[in-house]
Amino acid sequence: ELIPEFYYLPEMFVNSNNYNLGVMDDGTVVSDVELPPWAKTPEEFVRINRL
């Protein structure tokens, strides 16, 4: 079960405040959520999930 914000709040997928979320083991900086290839933007991701 997903939280309700998953279906109406695209802002939750973007680190707009530039918080330091650390780095992964491979050195990649953690920031925005990595969306699946079929969603070009967080808004599109939310829109498609609402269908």
From TrEMBL:
Q: Which Gene3D superfamilies does UniProt cross-reference here?
A: BEACH domain
Q: Which InterPro entries would you find in this protein's record? A: BEACH_dom, BEACH_dom_sf, BEACH_Domain
- Every copy of the BEACH domain together lies at 1-51
Alphabetical keyword list = WD repeat
Q: Fetch the Pfam families from UniProt.
A: Beach
Fetch the SUPFAM superfamilies from UniProt.
BEACH domain (SSF81837)
| Superkingdom classification of source | Eukaryota
**Repeat as a keyword?**
no
Tell me which positions the record assigns to the signal sequence.
Answer: none
**Name under which the protein is recorded:** BEACH domain-containing protein
